[in-house]
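note to self: the first set is below, dont mix up w the second
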Amino acid sequence: MKTTLVLMMLLSIKLQAQELKGPVKFKNTVKVLNMGTFHMGYTPDASTTEFDEHDQRNIDKVHEVAEAIAEFRPTVILVEQVPEKNAEVQESYQEYTQNPEMKFKNPSELELLAFEVGRLAGSERIYGIDYREGYNYRIAEKINNSYGIETYKKYFAVLDSLQKEYPEEDMSVLEKLQMSNNPNYKDMLLNINADMLTHISTEGNAEGADEASKLYHRNLVMYSNLNQIELNKDDRVFILMGASHTAFFDMWLERSPKYELIDTSKYL
């Protein structure tokens, strides 16, 4: 009898393992297109890209991308803006949908790409989900005798070589966006902005990890802001943020039972 019970338990475990071939998902999931971008205008974040947001040729190229993304037919658009400015963003978006020729004094990916995607797709709702929290991403320069400084330096030396081999300034708008949404590139952004800091510490401390946790916390709050937005099974969500935020969101959206993460490469 004892042997029979053990065999039944092992068989049950095996069957359950076979069924869990991917994350557990609800029957009706909300489809999400989570797209990373380089910042096309001013940003309080550390990373910037050379891009003339007033050049009509650049605007036209961005709008070509927007036309492709609009095929996703989003009903809701989420952007890297703090929720406190949602009324302002909504008002500006409505003005743009009524007059797409309007000019913005300091346009960013919000006005150039998100607004145009929404206009073409007929999206009625747009929200900011950003949360501002600073951290010292240069803490490695501030600590003497850090345990993992050689690993840290070696990694960034490799990245410097790659940057010289594939200069971003030679890329088109589409190529930059394709790079921003490459899974390996997003993993690299997680390393650069957070995970490599865990190598920076002194004996008995975790100075780098303490700083990295602030960036994780910022993105977790942003993800919480997403989860506070009322959505139903018929909604289709387009998220546009700096690619490092996109990398964080990919992890959580993929594991979430509520959301279905759509492959961005289908639209780029």
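second set (the one i keep forgetting abt)
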Amino acid sequence: MIKAFFFDIDGTLLTNKGSIAKNTKKAISALHKKGIVCGVSTARTPKSIAHILKDLPFDLFIACNGQLVYTKEQMIYERAFESEALTEIVSYADQHFRQMILCGKNHSAGSWTMRFGQSQLLLHFMRFVPHYFPIRKMKRFLQKYSPNRRKQRYSNLAILKEPIYQCVMLSPEYENERLAAALPHCDLKRSNPYSVDLVPKGSSKLTGLKFLVEHLGIKLEETMVFGDHLNDIEIIQGAGMGVAMGNATVKTKQAADYVTTTNNQDGITAALRYFNLIKK
């Protein structure tokens, strides 16, 4: 019996227009009325989550790829970067003139280009960019002509005096091996092909889920999760039932127990109806 549901946000809860479909809202409200716990598991920060889900009855939150785990009333688990890992990240970004955002608990700081890149407007636009888009050339252009190209750009940021839970860096997928070698105290999580989420080694959405099920007094086998990208694979495999959206990556679909329709085709509602969890 499923006792708790967890949903990724981008590409899962949100349609390509950056909104939550009416049927998805109805489905989640129906689960909530039945007394079933609903939560999100996302790379987003708490502030961003609150803005998107302000009108929905969500009870539990896994933010920053598992670095912050909380309810509406209390923080269940948090893990910030240790100084050695953060120094490696900042040094790499400054040395290679990388665009980057550093995420604290209540706010973020860093590259304006990256902050704009996380906006719903650009995320919507990027879904229509063809696969042959020249990512390498664009990355080099941003590195070379950025108006903020200067030494020690990130090492002097005031936010570094606070705990940092995640860093988002402009880095296409072909750089994975190079980044992993340069940042040995970090794990690389991807929710899109153009940037990478850096988190402390050994972290994941699944780690966050384990803390939440312990808090709830239930088992992992009694959870169902929904996701669409590479950073959802671990939690999809670890949950009792893992559902991949129809728009998910091939690897994410292969890891799932069930593949539903896309985020633009009421995929969440379709899966809940398939498993007889809500009325048709």
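remember for set 2: The radius of gyration is 19 Å.
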